[in-house]
Amino acid sequence: MPSEKTYQRSTAEAAALPDPTPSFRSPSTYKKGTPLAIATVNPATGATERTFQPHDPDEIERRIARANEAVRLLASTTFAQRGEWMRAAADILESEVESLAVLMTTEMGKPIAQARAEAMKCAKGMRFYAENAEDFLATEHLADPAVVGASSAAARYEPLGVILAVMPWNYPLWQVIRFAAPALMAGNVGLLKHASNVPQCALYLDNIFERGGFPAGSFSVLLVGAAAVEPVIVDRRIKAVTLTGSEPAGRQVAAVAGAHIKKAVLELGGSDPFIVMPSADIQRAAEVAVNARVQNNGQSCIAAKRFIVHDAVYDEFASLLRERFAALRVGDPLDPGVDVGPIATEGGRQDLVDLVEDARERGATILTGGYAPEDPGWFYAPTLVADLPDDARLVMEEAFGPVASLYRVDSPAEALRIANQTTFGLSSSLWSADEEEIDAFLASLDAGAVFVNGMTVSYAQLPFGGIKDSGYGRELAAAGIREFCNLKTIWRA
Asked: Pick the catalytic residue: 267, 397, 398, 483?
């Protein structure tokens, strides 16, 4: 999920990228080397609705300086005070759900009902951290300090300071809020470099926390392109960075942060397996599978992308999935009857075309879809691909859109082999009623999460993140708020 989402590159291509340290190329590209303008381009029509001038160096400096000044103010406030401000900001956001939903749908094309749900999820997440931050960051006292020769010993969590967030367009509010709410409640200050194709969402977020009562500079937006990111990370006033983006982008940001000994949290791409075993409820699995793949027009890192089905139930599951995919309604995302809207960018749609055509040319079977409609806008038909040869790009690369891969396996061991064969390890879904089988998969799936008999969802109450090329560090829950804190040991004689 890059800041401007592209499909996930292969390992070989990622290795061939230029050294990111001397010349940082952010994820803000549709294709390699092609920077995005900062503009609202409606993906349902292809029309540019608004363009924005990026902040100049003086404005960038002003915003970083203001953020640095806010560090002392925010760190000196109580959890109760920050919680009051956070709840007020959540109330404001919730009162503006309808306009926010239209804004998100206009900028990146998600169906309007899903846009409303995203905005409501943000308000809920903000309230969650307002209620729980103090408990999550409570000082941890050593029960028997005498064992370390002390009268008392403890560890306490303290904010780091200004944190830079480089965020993507696919969940233009939620991806930001799930960083911002815990960061601010911990007493940190946030700076946001948002994706260049959702500038109006970014500008909304620029002042939502101040409107709730947070001090000026507690959270603000840098309306900048790719070239401005590295100097911001390098700036000594920036203490850490978090990125939700592609694996190559993560490598580049991590290299810059590492060169300056700064903490980084990376939530990168995914090609999540959805495993269906013979004991599963096949009707239910097929029903959930559709939403698991085409939610957000298929543009989600945690969407199920590879459907790995045991031979005993493959034909039934494939038939049900094909029927449901073919019945999906594609069209104007502002129409409440539409199931799948456009791909957010023209380049993103071309990536899907290239992946599916490569699979077709190598002998894969297109069970349904497999084409881009001729209508205006960047639509792509929900597509189900089977019989994939090992050399098809779709086997190893992330398809960021409504394209599903279907695999037939004859054993749990074969299912695990395919599930774990990619370089990704974000999440996974397992469908089975066999407890012994479930335990074996839980122990062996290379993923940051396993959802049993359900689809992957990010919950504020549960840690979220991946392994392998899907990144490191965690967001959400107690783990997420602690990522950007100094765990300070306190020893008293």
From this structure: 267
φ, ψ of residue 394 to 5 degrees: the values are -65, -20
Is there a catalytic annotation at residue 267?
A: yes
In tens, the pLDDT along 386-421 reads 999 999 999 999 999 999 999 999 999 999 999 999
pLDDT tens, 390-399?
999 999 999 9
> Of 430, 426, 438, 419, nearest to 454 (Cα)?
430
Nearest to 39 by CA among 225, 207, 299: 225
pLDDT at 94 over 80: yes
**What integer pLDDT is reported at residue 460 of this predicted model?**
98
Average pLDDT value over all residues in the chain: 93
Order of strands, sheet of 471-472, starting from the edge strand that comes earlier in the sequence: 219-221, 189-193, 162-166, 238-244, 263-267, 471-472
Q: Among the options 301, 397, 398, 475, which is catalytic? A: 301
Three-class DSSP category at 140: strand
Among residues 249, 335, 373, 348, which one has the least CA distance to residue 298?
348
Active site residue 201: no
pTM of the shown model: 0.92
Q: HSE (CB half, 13 Å, CA atoms) of 363?
A: 5
Class of the CATH domain delimited by 11-268+467-492: alpha beta
Q: What does the domain layout of the chain look like in residue ranges?
A: 11-268+467-492, 272-452
Question: Domain 272-452, CATH 3.30.70.360 — does that match?
Answer: no
